[in-house]
Structure formats: C-alpha cells, structure tokens
Amino acid sequence: MTAATVTLTVGKLADEVGVSADAIRHWEREGLFPAPERSAAGYRRYGTAELDRSRFIRACQRAGLRLADISDLLAVRDTGTCPCEPAGQHLERRIGEITAEIVRLEGLRSQLTDMLRAVDAGTCDPPLPENWCPPNTARGGECE
C-alpha cells in the first residue's frame, strides 16, 4: 500500500462497515477478499478498495443474497463491469424465496390466530395441537 492509501486494521474495517472482525475474516476465508497485506507484526492491513468491497458485500447481504451469490457478483464487478445484469437473476430468485416465506408465515399466523381463538373460547378443539396437554395427566380436568 502506498503512503497515500488509507490503512485499516481488520477491526477498523469492520467498524466502518458495521460488521464484526470475524465477518471480515470469514469473507476472506470464503474468497470474497483477496489475502490482505500484512504489517511487520502480521496484522491484516486494508485500504480503500477493501472498504468499498466490504460495503458492497454488506449491501448485498442486507438484500438477502447468499455469499455464493455475492461471490458471483464480485467476479463480474472485479472485471470492471457493472454486476447489475447478473444481480437481476439473484434478486429474482430471492424475491421468490421471500414470497414463499410470506405465504408460509401467513399460514402460520392464521394457525396461531385460530389457536388463540380456541384458547380464548376455553376450548381445546382443533386446531390446538393434540399434545397441548400432557397425556393422561388431565383426566377429568379442563384439557380432556
């Protein structure tokens, strides 16, 4: 790194990006970062390029992209080309996953709402789980 280049330790880089130092090290192990320069004492040293790369990775993670997706986008970005076109494929897949998760969560909300209504009504009729009350312990009690 030249004297004009900003030098950041792994901790400072992590603070700038809003992640842990372990996250930066993990990204490095996963190949999202080239091996950093090291100080004479062996500390990782990062510059503005790594800061930009870290911010890109973090923004992709906030969008819900996986590290494999991010790696694909970085490979395109590293050529100097905008990764927008390949990002579209990853984002479409992610939207599909989110849509499926919303459907699952709406079903769960409906089930829990039905269960709460049954509890409020004082009944243990379906849709309460069969194991709501311990087996054979509530004979003559409210659960059976």
UniProtKB/TrEMBL annotation:
One of its GO terms (molecular function) is DNA-binding transcription factor activity. SMART domains: HTH_MERR (SM00422). The keyword Transcription regulation applies. The keyword Transcription regulation applies. Keywords: DNA-binding, Repressor, Transcription, Transcription regulation. InterPro entries: DNA-bd_dom_put_sf (IPR009061), MerR-type_HTH_dom (IPR000551), MerR_fam (IPR047057). It comes from the Bacteria. Residues 7-76 form the HTH merR-type domain. Pfam families: MerR_1. This is DNA-binding transcriptional MerR regulator. The lineage of its organism: Bacteria, Bacillati, Actinomycetota, Actinomycetes, Glycomycetales.
